[in-house]
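Supplementary Methods S3. Input chains for the assembly prediction are listed below.
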Amino acid sequence: MITSVRSRVFAQIFLITIVFLWMIPIIGMIISSFRPYSETSSDGFFSWPDTLTLSNFSGAWERGDMLRHWLVTFAVLVPALFLVLFFSSMVAFAVSRYSWKFNIALLMLFTAGNLLPQQSIIIPLFEIYNRVPLPEIPFLVNSGELRGSLIGLILIHVAFQSGFCTFVLSNYMKTLPKELNEASMVDGASLWRQYWQIILPLTRPALAALATLEFAWIYNDYFWAVALIQNGNDLPITSSLRNLSGEFFTDDNLVAAGSLIVVAPTVLIYILLRKQFIAGLSVGANK
Amino acid sequence: MVGIPTFLHVMLIWVPAILSIGLSFTNWNGFKLSKISWRGIGNYKQIVTVFEKDFYEALLNNLWVLVFLFLFATPMGMFIAYLLDKNLKGTAIYQSLLYFPVVLSLAVVGFIWKSVIYSPRQGVLNTLLGRTDPGNQIDWLGNSDFVIGLTENYGLSRNFLALIAPMMWQHVGYIMVLYLAGLKSVDPSLREAAAIDGAGEWQTFRRIIAPSLRPVNVVIMVITVITGLRVYDIIDVLNNPIGTNVLSLLVTESTSGESSNVGRGSAYAAILLALCFGFVIWYLRSTFKEDDA
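Predicted C-alpha coordinates for the full assembly:
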Protein backbone atom coordinates (compact mmCIF):
# COMPACT_ATOMS: atom_id res chain seq x y z
CA MET A 1 0.00 0.00 0.00
CA ILE A 2 2.58 2.49 1.08
CA THR A 3 4.27 4.05 -1.90
CA SER A 4 7.28 6.13 -1.02
CA VAL A 5 10.24 5.29 1.14
CA ARG A 6 10.00 8.73 2.65
CA SER A 7 6.55 8.20 4.11
CA ARG A 8 7.61 4.83 5.44
CA VAL A 9 10.58 6.41 7.22
CA PHE A 10 8.35 9.14 8.57
CA ALA A 11 5.87 6.55 9.89
CA GLN A 12 8.64 4.60 11.62
CA ILE A 13 10.11 7.68 13.28
CA PHE A 14 6.68 8.80 14.43
CA LEU A 15 5.77 5.39 15.84
CA ILE A 16 9.08 4.88 17.62
CA THR A 17 8.82 8.32 19.22
CA ILE A 18 5.29 7.67 20.43
CA VAL A 19 6.10 4.22 21.75
CA PHE A 20 9.12 5.60 23.58
CA LEU A 21 7.09 8.38 25.18
CA TRP A 22 4.34 5.93 26.09
CA MET A 23 6.75 3.61 27.87
CA ILE A 24 8.25 6.26 30.15
CA PRO A 25 5.82 5.72 33.05
CA ILE A 26 6.24 1.95 32.85
CA ILE A 27 10.02 1.96 32.60
CA GLY A 28 10.16 4.63 35.28
CA MET A 29 8.03 2.49 37.58
CA ILE A 30 10.24 -0.56 37.08
CA ILE A 31 13.51 1.28 37.59
CA SER A 32 12.48 3.29 40.64
CA SER A 33 10.91 0.28 42.32
CA PHE A 34 14.37 -1.30 42.60
CA ARG A 35 16.11 1.79 43.95
CA PRO A 36 16.12 3.15 47.51
CA TYR A 37 14.25 6.42 47.95
CA SER A 38 17.23 8.05 49.65
CA GLU A 39 19.27 7.55 46.48
CA THR A 40 16.79 8.73 43.85
CA SER A 41 15.70 11.72 45.90
CA SER A 42 19.24 12.97 46.42
CA ASP A 43 20.90 11.95 43.13
CA GLY A 44 17.89 12.47 40.92
CA PHE A 45 15.66 10.27 38.85
CA PHE A 46 18.04 9.88 35.92
CA SER A 47 21.12 9.12 38.02
CA TRP A 48 23.01 5.88 37.51
CA PRO A 49 21.78 3.35 40.11
CA ASP A 50 24.34 2.62 42.84
CA THR A 51 22.24 0.25 44.84
CA LEU A 52 19.55 -2.10 43.64
CA THR A 53 17.29 -3.45 46.31
CA LEU A 54 14.19 -5.52 46.82
CA SER A 55 13.30 -3.72 50.02
CA ASN A 56 10.66 -1.58 48.30
CA PHE A 57 8.86 -4.75 47.29
CA SER A 58 9.00 -6.34 50.72
CA GLY A 59 7.99 -3.02 52.26
CA ALA A 60 5.02 -2.61 49.96
CA TRP A 61 4.05 -6.24 50.44
CA GLU A 62 3.92 -5.85 54.21
CA ARG A 63 2.53 -2.36 54.56
CA GLY A 64 -0.09 -2.98 51.90
CA ASP A 65 -1.02 -6.35 53.46
CA MET A 66 -1.01 -7.54 49.88
CA LEU A 67 -1.36 -11.26 50.41
CA ARG A 68 -4.69 -10.75 52.12
CA HIS A 69 -5.94 -8.30 49.49
CA TRP A 70 -4.88 -10.64 46.74
CA LEU A 71 -6.88 -13.44 48.33
CA VAL A 72 -9.90 -11.13 48.39
CA THR A 73 -9.39 -10.23 44.74
CA PHE A 74 -9.24 -13.83 43.61
CA ALA A 75 -12.12 -14.89 45.86
CA VAL A 76 -14.21 -12.36 43.92
CA LEU A 77 -12.61 -12.74 40.52
CA VAL A 78 -12.79 -16.51 40.01
CA PRO A 79 -16.50 -17.06 40.73
CA ALA A 80 -17.45 -13.80 39.00
CA LEU A 81 -15.57 -14.78 35.87
CA PHE A 82 -17.19 -18.22 35.65
CA LEU A 83 -20.66 -16.94 36.40
CA VAL A 84 -20.52 -14.07 33.96
CA LEU A 85 -19.43 -16.32 31.10
CA PHE A 86 -21.97 -18.99 32.02
CA PHE A 87 -24.89 -16.57 32.35
CA SER A 88 -23.99 -14.50 29.30
CA SER A 89 -23.53 -17.51 27.08
CA MET A 90 -27.00 -18.79 28.03
CA VAL A 91 -28.65 -15.47 27.26
CA ALA A 92 -26.61 -15.12 24.08
CA PHE A 93 -27.68 -18.62 23.03
CA ALA A 94 -31.32 -17.80 23.60
CA VAL A 95 -31.27 -14.48 21.75
CA SER A 96 -29.04 -15.45 18.86
CA ARG A 97 -30.09 -18.99 18.03
CA TYR A 98 -33.83 -18.57 18.34
CA SER A 99 -36.22 -15.96 17.06
CA TRP A 100 -38.83 -15.04 19.59
CA LYS A 101 -40.76 -11.97 20.39
CA PHE A 102 -38.42 -10.17 22.73
CA ASN A 103 -35.02 -11.49 21.78
CA ILE A 104 -33.72 -8.27 20.25
CA ALA A 105 -35.21 -6.18 23.03
CA LEU A 106 -33.51 -8.38 25.61
CA LEU A 107 -30.17 -8.13 23.87
CA MET A 108 -30.50 -4.35 23.72
CA LEU A 109 -31.30 -4.26 27.42
CA PHE A 110 -28.07 -6.11 28.23
CA THR A 111 -25.99 -4.09 25.78
CA ALA A 112 -27.26 -0.75 27.08
CA GLY A 113 -26.87 -1.85 30.71
CA ASN A 114 -23.13 -2.14 30.30
CA LEU A 115 -22.85 1.41 28.95
CA LEU A 116 -24.36 3.14 31.99
CA PRO A 117 -21.87 4.91 34.24
CA GLN A 118 -21.44 2.83 37.40
CA GLN A 119 -21.78 5.91 39.58
CA SER A 120 -25.25 6.64 38.24
CA ILE A 121 -26.69 3.50 39.82
CA ILE A 122 -24.60 3.27 42.97
CA ILE A 123 -26.90 5.02 45.44
CA PRO A 124 -29.96 2.77 45.00
CA LEU A 125 -27.71 -0.27 44.63
CA PHE A 126 -26.09 0.55 47.95
CA GLU A 127 -29.51 0.99 49.59
CA ILE A 128 -30.73 -2.32 48.15
CA TYR A 129 -27.58 -4.11 49.31
CA ASN A 130 -28.09 -2.55 52.72
CA ARG A 131 -31.46 -4.23 53.05
CA VAL A 132 -30.61 -7.77 51.99
CA PRO A 133 -29.52 -9.79 55.04
CA LEU A 134 -27.10 -12.67 54.51
CA PRO A 135 -25.92 -15.32 56.96
CA GLU A 136 -22.33 -14.87 58.10
CA ILE A 137 -19.91 -16.91 56.01
CA PRO A 138 -16.26 -16.60 57.01
CA PHE A 139 -14.31 -14.47 54.52
CA LEU A 140 -17.19 -14.08 52.04
CA VAL A 141 -19.80 -12.44 54.26
CA ASN A 142 -18.53 -10.62 57.34
CA SER A 143 -21.10 -7.88 57.45
CA GLY A 144 -24.36 -9.83 57.74
CA GLU A 145 -25.66 -8.04 54.64
CA LEU A 146 -25.09 -8.01 50.91
CA ARG A 147 -23.42 -4.64 51.43
CA GLY A 148 -19.86 -5.14 52.53
CA SER A 149 -19.80 -8.79 51.51
CA LEU A 150 -17.71 -10.35 48.78
CA ILE A 151 -20.88 -12.07 47.52
CA GLY A 152 -22.36 -8.66 46.83
CA LEU A 153 -19.25 -7.70 44.92
CA ILE A 154 -19.38 -10.90 42.86
CA LEU A 155 -23.03 -10.30 42.00
CA ILE A 156 -22.56 -6.76 40.76
CA HIS A 157 -19.60 -7.79 38.62
CA VAL A 158 -21.70 -10.55 37.07
CA ALA A 159 -24.69 -8.28 36.51
CA PHE A 160 -22.68 -5.42 35.05
CA GLN A 161 -20.24 -7.38 32.90
CA SER A 162 -22.90 -9.72 31.53
CA GLY A 163 -24.03 -6.81 29.36
CA PHE A 164 -20.84 -6.71 27.35
CA CYS A 165 -20.33 -10.49 27.32
CA THR A 166 -23.87 -11.24 26.14
CA PHE A 167 -23.41 -8.78 23.29
CA VAL A 168 -20.09 -10.22 22.16
CA LEU A 169 -21.17 -13.85 22.52
CA SER A 170 -24.45 -13.38 20.68
CA ASN A 171 -22.57 -11.75 17.79
CA TYR A 172 -20.29 -14.73 17.70
CA MET A 173 -23.05 -17.33 17.96
CA LYS A 174 -24.95 -15.68 15.13
CA THR A 175 -22.15 -16.61 12.77
CA LEU A 176 -22.56 -20.34 13.50
CA PRO A 177 -24.70 -22.16 10.90
CA LYS A 178 -28.40 -22.35 11.70
CA GLU A 179 -28.57 -25.97 10.58
CA LEU A 180 -26.79 -26.98 13.76
CA ASN A 181 -29.92 -26.30 15.78
CA GLU A 182 -32.26 -27.83 13.27
CA ALA A 183 -30.26 -31.04 12.96
CA SER A 184 -30.01 -31.45 16.69
CA MET A 185 -33.70 -30.76 17.14
CA VAL A 186 -34.50 -33.52 14.70
CA ASP A 187 -32.29 -35.77 16.77
CA GLY A 188 -34.41 -34.86 19.75
CA ALA A 189 -31.75 -32.99 21.69
CA SER A 190 -33.11 -30.87 24.50
CA LEU A 191 -32.52 -27.13 24.57
CA TRP A 192 -29.96 -27.58 27.30
CA ARG A 193 -28.06 -30.20 25.29
CA GLN A 194 -28.03 -27.98 22.22
CA TYR A 195 -26.54 -25.21 24.29
CA TRP A 196 -24.10 -27.21 26.36
CA GLN A 197 -22.94 -29.84 23.89
CA ILE A 198 -23.27 -28.22 20.49
CA ILE A 199 -23.11 -24.43 20.60
CA LEU A 200 -20.93 -23.81 23.63
CA PRO A 201 -17.96 -25.89 22.42
CA LEU A 202 -18.03 -23.99 19.13
CA THR A 203 -18.03 -20.68 21.00
CA ARG A 204 -14.76 -21.50 22.73
CA PRO A 205 -12.61 -18.91 20.88
CA ALA A 206 -14.94 -16.08 21.86
CA LEU A 207 -15.15 -17.37 25.43
CA ALA A 208 -11.36 -17.48 25.67
CA ALA A 209 -11.04 -13.92 24.38
CA LEU A 210 -13.71 -12.68 26.78
CA ALA A 211 -12.21 -14.55 29.72
CA THR A 212 -8.88 -12.73 29.38
CA LEU A 213 -10.55 -9.37 28.92
CA GLU A 214 -12.92 -9.87 31.83
CA PHE A 215 -10.10 -11.15 34.00
CA ALA A 216 -8.40 -7.79 33.57
CA TRP A 217 -11.57 -5.74 33.99
CA ILE A 218 -12.74 -7.45 37.16
CA TYR A 219 -9.23 -7.55 38.59
CA ASN A 220 -8.82 -3.84 37.86
CA ASP A 221 -12.11 -2.81 39.42
CA TYR A 222 -11.78 -0.07 41.94
CA PHE A 223 -15.15 1.63 42.07
CA TRP A 224 -17.53 -1.21 42.99
CA ALA A 225 -15.15 -2.29 45.73
CA VAL A 226 -14.67 1.06 47.44
CA ALA A 227 -18.35 1.95 47.07
CA LEU A 228 -19.79 -1.29 48.42
CA ILE A 229 -17.20 -2.46 50.95
CA GLN A 230 -16.49 -0.48 54.09
CA ASN A 231 -14.12 -2.75 55.97
CA GLY A 232 -10.61 -1.95 54.72
CA ASN A 233 -9.49 -5.56 55.22
CA ASP A 234 -12.06 -6.82 52.75
CA LEU A 235 -10.98 -4.57 49.89
CA PRO A 236 -9.44 -6.11 46.78
CA ILE A 237 -5.85 -5.38 45.86
CA THR A 238 -6.32 -2.44 43.48
CA SER A 239 -7.59 -0.34 46.35
CA SER A 240 -4.92 -1.45 48.81
CA LEU A 241 -2.32 0.86 47.27
CA ARG A 242 -3.88 3.70 49.19
CA ASN A 243 -2.32 2.26 52.34
CA LEU A 244 1.14 3.05 50.98
CA SER A 245 0.75 6.81 50.95
CA GLY A 246 1.47 8.59 54.18
CA GLU A 247 -0.32 11.75 55.18
CA PHE A 248 2.76 13.97 55.03
CA PHE A 249 5.36 11.90 53.30
CA THR A 250 5.07 9.30 50.56
CA ASP A 251 7.96 7.10 49.47
CA ASP A 252 7.51 7.20 45.71
CA ASN A 253 9.67 4.15 45.13
CA LEU A 254 7.63 2.15 47.60
CA VAL A 255 4.47 3.15 45.71
CA ALA A 256 6.13 2.19 42.42
CA ALA A 257 7.03 -1.22 43.79
CA GLY A 258 3.51 -1.67 45.14
CA SER A 259 2.02 -0.70 41.79
CA LEU A 260 4.26 -3.22 40.07
CA ILE A 261 3.09 -5.97 42.43
CA VAL A 262 -0.55 -5.06 41.85
CA VAL A 263 -0.33 -4.98 38.06
CA ALA A 264 1.81 -8.12 37.81
CA PRO A 265 -1.03 -10.65 37.26
CA THR A 266 -2.75 -8.67 34.50
CA VAL A 267 0.57 -7.92 32.85
CA LEU A 268 1.48 -11.59 32.97
CA ILE A 269 -1.83 -12.58 31.41
CA TYR A 270 -1.39 -9.87 28.81
CA ILE A 271 2.08 -11.06 27.85
CA LEU A 272 0.90 -14.67 27.59
CA LEU A 273 -2.45 -14.08 25.92
CA ARG A 274 -1.97 -10.83 24.03
CA LYS A 275 -3.87 -12.05 21.00
CA GLN A 276 -6.90 -13.04 23.07
CA PHE A 277 -7.02 -9.62 24.68
CA ILE A 278 -7.09 -7.80 21.42
CA ALA A 279 -9.52 -10.27 19.86
CA GLY A 280 -11.97 -9.77 22.71
CA LEU A 281 -12.11 -6.05 22.13
CA SER A 282 -12.25 -6.36 18.37
CA VAL A 283 -15.23 -8.71 18.45
CA GLY A 284 -17.03 -6.18 20.60
CA ALA A 285 -16.45 -3.39 18.11
CA ASN A 286 -17.13 -5.21 14.86
CA LYS A 287 -20.01 -7.53 14.51
CA MET B 1 -32.07 -20.31 31.05
CA VAL B 2 -32.59 -16.63 30.47
CA GLY B 3 -34.45 -16.04 33.71
CA ILE B 4 -31.77 -15.87 36.36
CA PRO B 5 -29.20 -13.83 34.37
CA THR B 6 -31.88 -11.38 33.27
CA PHE B 7 -33.30 -11.08 36.77
CA LEU B 8 -29.85 -10.32 38.15
CA HIS B 9 -29.05 -7.80 35.44
CA VAL B 10 -32.38 -6.00 35.74
CA MET B 11 -32.42 -6.00 39.54
CA LEU B 12 -28.87 -4.72 39.97
CA ILE B 13 -28.52 -2.42 36.95
CA TRP B 14 -31.84 -1.21 35.61
CA VAL B 15 -33.87 -1.05 38.80
CA PRO B 16 -31.18 1.09 40.49
CA ALA B 17 -30.96 3.26 37.35
CA ILE B 18 -34.69 3.97 37.50
CA LEU B 19 -34.60 4.39 41.28
CA SER B 20 -31.82 6.96 40.86
CA ILE B 21 -34.16 9.06 38.78
CA GLY B 22 -37.03 8.52 41.20
CA LEU B 23 -34.98 9.35 44.29
CA SER B 24 -33.68 12.52 42.67
CA PHE B 25 -37.12 14.04 43.27
CA THR B 26 -37.16 13.16 46.95
CA ASN B 27 -35.71 14.19 50.23
CA TRP B 28 -34.03 11.33 52.11
CA ASN B 29 -31.04 10.75 54.31
CA GLY B 30 -30.74 7.05 53.43
CA PHE B 31 -31.87 5.56 56.73
CA LYS B 32 -35.54 4.74 57.31
CA LEU B 33 -37.58 4.13 54.17
CA SER B 34 -40.59 5.78 55.82
CA LYS B 35 -38.65 9.05 56.02
CA ILE B 36 -38.62 9.54 52.25
CA SER B 37 -40.56 12.62 51.25
CA TRP B 38 -41.41 14.07 47.86
CA ARG B 39 -39.40 17.11 46.91
CA GLY B 40 -40.20 17.74 43.27
CA ILE B 41 -37.40 19.46 41.43
CA GLY B 42 -36.01 20.91 44.64
CA ASN B 43 -32.75 18.97 44.44
CA TYR B 44 -32.09 20.16 40.92
CA LYS B 45 -32.86 23.74 41.93
CA GLN B 46 -30.42 23.42 44.81
CA ILE B 47 -27.73 22.06 42.50
CA VAL B 48 -27.83 25.09 40.21
CA THR B 49 -28.05 27.58 43.08
CA VAL B 50 -26.43 26.57 46.38
CA PHE B 51 -24.10 24.01 44.81
CA GLU B 52 -23.61 25.96 41.61
CA LYS B 53 -19.83 26.16 42.01
CA ASP B 54 -19.39 22.39 42.56
CA PHE B 55 -21.77 21.47 39.81
CA TYR B 56 -20.46 23.69 37.03
CA GLU B 57 -16.87 22.94 37.94
CA ALA B 58 -17.56 19.20 37.71
CA LEU B 59 -19.56 19.51 34.52
CA LEU B 60 -16.83 21.61 32.96
CA ASN B 61 -14.16 19.12 34.03
CA ASN B 62 -16.10 16.28 32.40
CA LEU B 63 -16.29 18.44 29.32
CA TRP B 64 -12.51 19.05 29.40
CA VAL B 65 -11.92 15.31 29.44
CA LEU B 66 -14.14 14.96 26.39
CA VAL B 67 -12.42 17.84 24.60
CA PHE B 68 -8.97 16.40 25.16
CA LEU B 69 -9.97 12.87 24.26
CA PHE B 70 -11.73 14.01 21.11
CA LEU B 71 -9.11 16.51 19.99
CA PHE B 72 -6.00 14.50 20.79
CA ALA B 73 -6.32 10.95 22.09
CA THR B 74 -9.01 9.61 19.78
CA PRO B 75 -7.55 11.01 16.52
CA MET B 76 -4.11 9.92 17.60
CA GLY B 77 -5.27 6.36 18.27
CA MET B 78 -6.95 6.32 14.87
CA PHE B 79 -3.89 7.69 13.12
CA ILE B 80 -1.61 5.15 14.76
CA ALA B 81 -4.02 2.38 13.77
CA TYR B 82 -3.92 3.67 10.22
CA LEU B 83 -0.12 3.50 10.19
CA LEU B 84 -0.06 0.06 11.79
CA ASP B 85 -2.52 -1.21 9.21
CA LYS B 86 0.20 -0.77 6.59
CA ASN B 87 2.12 -3.70 8.07
CA LEU B 88 5.31 -1.77 8.60
CA LYS B 89 8.23 -3.46 10.29
CA GLY B 90 7.69 -3.76 14.04
CA THR B 91 3.91 -3.34 13.85
CA ALA B 92 3.24 -6.18 16.30
CA ILE B 93 5.63 -4.73 18.88
CA TYR B 94 4.31 -1.19 18.56
CA GLN B 95 0.77 -2.43 18.94
CA SER B 96 1.54 -4.53 22.02
CA LEU B 97 3.40 -1.73 23.73
CA LEU B 98 0.85 0.97 22.99
CA TYR B 99 -1.98 -1.24 24.15
CA PHE B 100 -0.12 -2.03 27.37
CA PRO B 101 -1.51 0.91 29.42
CA VAL B 102 -5.07 -0.25 28.68
CA VAL B 103 -4.45 -3.46 30.58
CA LEU B 104 -3.67 -1.54 33.76
CA SER B 105 -6.26 -0.44 36.28
CA LEU B 106 -6.85 3.30 36.06
CA ALA B 107 -6.61 3.41 39.84
CA VAL B 108 -3.09 1.99 39.70
CA VAL B 109 -2.26 4.23 36.74
CA GLY B 110 -2.98 7.13 39.08
CA PHE B 111 -0.32 5.91 41.49
CA ILE B 112 2.18 5.17 38.74
CA TRP B 113 1.90 8.68 37.32
CA LYS B 114 1.90 10.24 40.75
CA SER B 115 5.09 8.52 41.86
CA VAL B 116 7.01 8.37 38.57
CA ILE B 117 5.95 11.41 36.55
CA TYR B 118 4.56 13.96 38.98
CA SER B 119 6.51 13.38 42.19
CA PRO B 120 7.71 16.88 43.18
CA ARG B 121 10.98 15.63 44.73
CA GLN B 122 12.10 13.15 42.06
CA GLY B 123 9.49 12.84 39.31
CA VAL B 124 10.41 12.71 35.63
CA LEU B 125 8.86 16.08 34.87
CA ASN B 126 10.49 18.08 37.64
CA THR B 127 13.81 16.37 36.97
CA LEU B 128 13.67 17.33 33.30
CA LEU B 129 12.75 20.88 34.23
CA GLY B 130 15.40 21.09 36.95
CA ARG B 131 12.82 21.90 39.60
CA THR B 132 13.42 19.21 42.21
CA ASP B 133 14.88 21.37 44.98
CA PRO B 134 12.54 22.08 47.87
CA GLY B 135 11.07 25.55 47.43
CA ASN B 136 11.49 25.38 43.68
CA GLN B 137 9.32 22.31 43.02
CA ILE B 138 6.26 22.22 40.83
CA ASP B 139 3.42 20.46 42.60
CA TRP B 140 1.68 18.98 39.56
CA LEU B 141 -1.23 17.42 41.37
CA GLY B 142 -1.67 20.07 44.03
CA ASN B 143 -1.77 23.28 42.01
CA SER B 144 -5.30 24.17 41.00
CA ASP B 145 -4.54 27.46 39.21
CA PHE B 146 -6.10 27.70 35.79
CA VAL B 147 -4.16 26.86 32.66
CA ILE B 148 -7.12 28.00 30.63
CA GLY B 149 -9.31 30.40 32.55
CA LEU B 150 -12.79 30.95 31.16
CA THR B 151 -14.10 33.21 33.89
CA GLU B 152 -12.80 34.11 37.30
CA ASN B 153 -14.26 30.97 38.84
CA TYR B 154 -14.20 28.46 36.02
CA GLY B 155 -11.52 27.06 33.78
CA LEU B 156 -9.15 24.18 33.33
CA SER B 157 -7.01 23.76 36.42
CA ARG B 158 -3.41 22.65 36.18
CA ASN B 159 -3.87 19.56 38.29
CA PHE B 160 -6.89 18.44 36.33
CA LEU B 161 -4.88 18.71 33.13
CA ALA B 162 -2.24 16.60 34.87
CA LEU B 163 -4.92 13.97 35.46
CA ILE B 164 -6.19 14.09 31.88
CA ALA B 165 -2.71 13.13 30.62
CA PRO B 166 -2.81 9.55 32.01
CA MET B 167 -6.40 9.19 30.78
CA MET B 168 -5.19 10.02 27.28
CA TRP B 169 -2.22 7.73 27.75
CA GLN B 170 -4.69 4.87 28.18
CA HIS B 171 -7.29 5.99 25.69
CA VAL B 172 -4.93 6.10 22.68
CA GLY B 173 -4.19 2.38 22.93
CA TYR B 174 -7.83 1.49 23.35
CA ILE B 175 -8.94 3.46 20.29
CA MET B 176 -6.00 2.13 18.31
CA VAL B 177 -7.09 -1.48 18.83
CA LEU B 178 -10.74 -0.77 18.05
CA TYR B 179 -9.94 1.18 14.91
CA LEU B 180 -7.32 -1.28 13.73
CA ALA B 181 -9.88 -4.08 13.96
CA GLY B 182 -12.18 -1.95 11.80
CA LEU B 183 -9.47 -1.26 9.24
CA LYS B 184 -8.64 -4.95 9.00
CA SER B 185 -12.26 -5.70 8.17
CA VAL B 186 -12.30 -3.41 5.11
CA ASP B 187 -12.58 -5.55 2.00
CA PRO B 188 -9.06 -5.60 0.47
CA SER B 189 -10.44 -5.85 -3.07
CA LEU B 190 -11.93 -2.36 -2.65
CA ARG B 191 -8.47 -0.96 -1.99
CA GLU B 192 -6.98 -2.81 -4.91
CA ALA B 193 -9.66 -1.49 -7.19
CA ALA B 194 -8.99 2.04 -5.94
CA ALA B 195 -5.26 1.61 -6.47
CA ILE B 196 -5.79 0.35 -10.04
CA ASP B 197 -7.99 3.35 -10.74
CA GLY B 198 -5.10 5.53 -9.64
CA ALA B 199 -6.59 6.86 -6.43
CA GLY B 200 -4.08 8.55 -4.14
CA GLU B 201 -3.60 7.67 -0.50
CA TRP B 202 -5.79 10.45 0.89
CA GLN B 203 -8.47 9.82 -1.73
CA THR B 204 -8.56 6.11 -0.98
CA PHE B 205 -8.89 6.82 2.71
CA ARG B 206 -11.62 9.39 2.32
CA ARG B 207 -13.69 7.67 -0.33
CA ILE B 208 -13.16 3.96 0.35
CA ILE B 209 -11.93 3.31 3.87
CA ALA B 210 -13.68 5.97 5.94
CA PRO B 211 -17.21 5.26 4.68
CA SER B 212 -16.94 1.54 5.34
CA LEU B 213 -15.81 2.29 8.87
CA ARG B 214 -18.95 4.11 9.91
CA PRO B 215 -20.05 1.46 12.48
CA VAL B 216 -16.61 1.48 14.11
CA ASN B 217 -16.67 5.26 14.20
CA VAL B 218 -19.91 5.19 16.14
CA VAL B 219 -18.43 2.71 18.61
CA ILE B 220 -15.38 4.94 19.04
CA MET B 221 -17.46 8.08 19.53
CA VAL B 222 -19.74 6.44 22.08
CA ILE B 223 -16.87 4.83 23.97
CA THR B 224 -15.03 8.14 24.12
CA VAL B 225 -18.08 9.96 25.50
CA ILE B 226 -18.90 7.27 28.04
CA THR B 227 -15.27 7.13 29.16
CA GLY B 228 -15.33 10.89 29.64
CA LEU B 229 -18.46 10.73 31.76
CA ARG B 230 -17.33 7.73 33.81
CA VAL B 231 -14.02 9.20 34.98
CA TYR B 232 -13.74 8.45 38.66
CA ASP B 233 -11.05 6.02 39.82
CA ILE B 234 -7.95 8.01 39.03
CA ILE B 235 -9.26 11.10 40.81
CA ASP B 236 -10.66 9.31 43.83
CA VAL B 237 -7.53 7.29 44.34
CA LEU B 238 -5.47 10.48 44.55
CA ASN B 239 -7.91 11.83 47.17
CA ASN B 240 -9.74 14.20 44.87
CA PRO B 241 -7.41 17.23 44.87
CA ILE B 242 -9.07 20.66 44.83
CA GLY B 243 -10.07 21.67 41.32
CA THR B 244 -10.50 18.14 40.01
CA ASN B 245 -14.13 17.38 40.77
CA VAL B 246 -16.26 15.53 38.21
CA LEU B 247 -19.95 14.58 38.13
CA SER B 248 -19.42 10.96 39.17
CA LEU B 249 -17.55 12.11 42.26
CA LEU B 250 -20.35 14.49 43.22
CA VAL B 251 -22.67 11.47 43.36
CA THR B 252 -20.58 9.64 45.93
CA GLU B 253 -19.55 12.79 47.80
CA SER B 254 -23.15 13.83 48.44
CA THR B 255 -23.96 10.49 50.00
CA SER B 256 -20.94 9.93 52.19
CA GLY B 257 -20.35 11.27 55.65
CA GLU B 258 -22.59 13.04 58.12
CA SER B 259 -24.56 15.24 55.77
CA SER B 260 -25.53 12.38 53.46
CA ASN B 261 -28.18 13.54 51.04
CA VAL B 262 -29.55 10.75 48.88
CA GLY B 263 -31.86 13.10 47.00
CA ARG B 264 -29.10 15.41 45.81
CA GLY B 265 -26.70 12.55 45.05
CA SER B 266 -29.41 10.89 42.97
CA ALA B 267 -30.02 14.14 41.11
CA TYR B 268 -26.34 14.18 40.11
CA ALA B 269 -26.68 10.52 39.09
CA ALA B 270 -29.78 11.30 37.03
CA ILE B 271 -27.94 14.11 35.25
CA LEU B 272 -25.13 11.69 34.47
CA LEU B 273 -27.66 9.19 33.13
CA ALA B 274 -29.35 11.83 31.01
CA LEU B 275 -26.02 12.85 29.47
CA CYS B 276 -25.26 9.25 28.51
CA PHE B 277 -28.71 8.37 27.37
CA GLY B 278 -28.60 9.90 23.91
CA PHE B 279 -25.30 8.23 23.12
CA VAL B 280 -26.51 4.86 24.32
CA ILE B 281 -29.54 5.12 22.05
CA TRP B 282 -27.32 6.20 19.16
CA TYR B 283 -25.08 3.22 19.77
CA LEU B 284 -28.00 0.80 19.93
CA ARG B 285 -29.52 2.18 16.76
CA SER B 286 -26.28 1.93 14.87
CA THR B 287 -25.53 -1.56 16.16
CA PHE B 288 -28.95 -3.13 15.74
CA LYS B 289 -29.93 -1.40 12.51
CA GLU B 290 -29.75 -4.18 9.93
CA ASP B 291 -30.32 -6.72 12.62
CA ASP B 292 -33.47 -8.75 12.70
CA ALA B 293 -32.38 -12.26 13.47
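The two ends of chain B are 19 Å apart (CA to CA). The CA atoms of residues 58 and 246 of chain B lie 4 Å apart.
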